[in-house]
Task: inverse folding
């Protein structure tokens, strides 16, 4: 009791209290104070409960959140949920990377099953339908390998810790899933266009081919080019892109590991292709990362066109062997030509690919005395890219007949082991991969030297050789 508290109204006090002291008002004030504190505390708890009820999903275990996100399309994961918050971003990116990583395995599994089914099929029409399905799977595997060569260094992989990004092309994964669902449940919707009209593709396959080109260009420009020292971080990306060319001849001069560095020299030969770099007056300046991105895009276009044209030819030969007694003639692939061009600083690049039919139509190669076409003869250059061919022409032909048309790429590499080509890293054992630490092995300069030789350019009096280096200016 406070003894210094005065009584302002003596009639307002409790009977048993000492005279001259006021206690009733004091008690009332204390009760009111405690009541207000209790009310404010209950209000705070109510607000906290409401806030928790609003964000209950944030307290859900990661495994449950993943199960919930599996009911959402990959396109929504990449374009919407990935941008909500950090937790949603982590879970969504894991699902996107895992969804893309299993595509190639599923395609190869379907391809093995389809190839096995061909051995138990006797009906001609059924063989044709299954053969068309096999062709579609080969096209998609080729597209998938090009995407992998573009993004695998920057997304989840089993070799080392990567940059904070993911396979955010969710729409591509969705279309792959739609294709595989149709393949298993209603395959007639996939092979029907090719059966009705040779070499026609279903909507899903055509869409994947278009999105693959667009996504790879976007990824290089948005993710890789803006990184500091991207010339070094991309490692042997050029070798990965060239390795995805299924019908280019590859010759390995040497491939070895010295301490924590990778040393190698490869030669690639692209049949019926050309690659010319002509000097021009210096134009707008372009920084080195942008030049590197343009080189990646240029090589990827050549690889995609080369795969597409020669895959058609191989599929035609396979169908002819599978259906020797076909009631109607099997249509040969049309004469296809792909060309590309562009200027980078003081160089103008002209490149392209043509199939065998377009080559014969353009240059009219002479037939052998036995009546065999030139394509039946063994091509020494194709079997060994290191062989230098003899240059000759025919004076009686105003178009200067070519003995061949193609270009060779000599690739020399010296880089940290973590940046070695994907094809080499896949050959390492588990012990070597376990010791490989990305942070420890990236120290050291990456050097990559390319020597392009297009022998056919000699007849058009264009430069035959072009050299490209990565690492010197990084």
Result:
């Amino acid at each position: 009791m406070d003894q210094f508290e005065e009584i302002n109204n003596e009639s307002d006090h409790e009977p048993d209290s000492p005279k001259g002291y006021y206690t009733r008002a004091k008690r009332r004030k204390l009760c009111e104070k405690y009541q207000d504190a209790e009310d404010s505390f209950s209000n705070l708890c109510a607000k906290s409960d409401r806030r928790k009820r609003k964000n209950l999903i944030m307290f859900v275990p990661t495994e449950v959140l993943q199960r919930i996100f599996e009911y959402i399309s990959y396109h929504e994961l990449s374009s919407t949920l990935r941008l909500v918050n950090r937790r949603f971003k982590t879970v969504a990116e894991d699902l996107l990377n895992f969804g893309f990583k299993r595509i190639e395995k599923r395609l190869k599994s379907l391809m093995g099953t389809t190839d096995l089914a061909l051995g138990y099929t006797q009906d001609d029409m059924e063989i044709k339908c299954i053969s068309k399905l096999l062709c579609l799977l080969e096209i998609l595997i080729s597209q998938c390998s090009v995407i992998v060569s573009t993004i695998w260094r920057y997304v989840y992989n089993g070799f080392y810790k990567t940059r904070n990004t993911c396979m955010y092309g969710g729409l591509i994964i969705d279309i792959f899933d739609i294709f595989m669902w149709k393949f298993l449940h209603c395959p007639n919707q996939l092979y029907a266009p090719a059966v009705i009209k040779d070499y026609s593709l279903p909507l899903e396959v055509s869409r994947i081919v278009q999105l693959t080109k667009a996504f790879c260009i976007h990824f290089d420009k948005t993710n890789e080019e803006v990184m500091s020292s991207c010339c070094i971080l991309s490692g042997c990306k050029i070798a990965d892109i060239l390795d995805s060319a299924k019908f280019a001849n590859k010759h390995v001069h040497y491939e070895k590991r010295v301490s924590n560095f990778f040393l190698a020299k490869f030669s690639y030969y692209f049949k019926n292709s050309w690659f010319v770099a002509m000097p021009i007056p210096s134009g707008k300046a372009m920084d080195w990362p942008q030049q590197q991105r343009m080189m990646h895009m240029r090589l990827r276009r050549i690889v995609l066109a080369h795969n597409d044209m020669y895959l058609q030819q191989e599929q035609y030969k396979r169908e002819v062997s599978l259906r020797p007694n076909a009631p109607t003639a099997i249509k040969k692939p049309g004469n296809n030509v792909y060309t590309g061009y562009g200027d980078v600083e003081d160089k103008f690049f002209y490149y392209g690919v043509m199939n065998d039919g377009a080559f014969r139509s353009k240059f009219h190669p002479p037939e052998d005395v036995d009546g065999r076409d030139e394509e039946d003869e063994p091509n020494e250059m194709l079997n060994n890219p290191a062989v230098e061919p003899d240059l000759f022409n025919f004076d009686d032909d105003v178009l200067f007949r070519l003995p061949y048309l193609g270009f060779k790429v000599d690739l020399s590499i010296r880089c940290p082991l973590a940046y070695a080509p994907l094809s080499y890293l896949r050959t390492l054992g588990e012990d070597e991969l376990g010791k490989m630490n990305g942070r420890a092995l990236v120290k050291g300069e990456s050097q990559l030297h390319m020597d392009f030789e297009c022998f056919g350019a000699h007849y058009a009096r264009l430069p035959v050789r072009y050299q490209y280096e990565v690492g010197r200016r990084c």
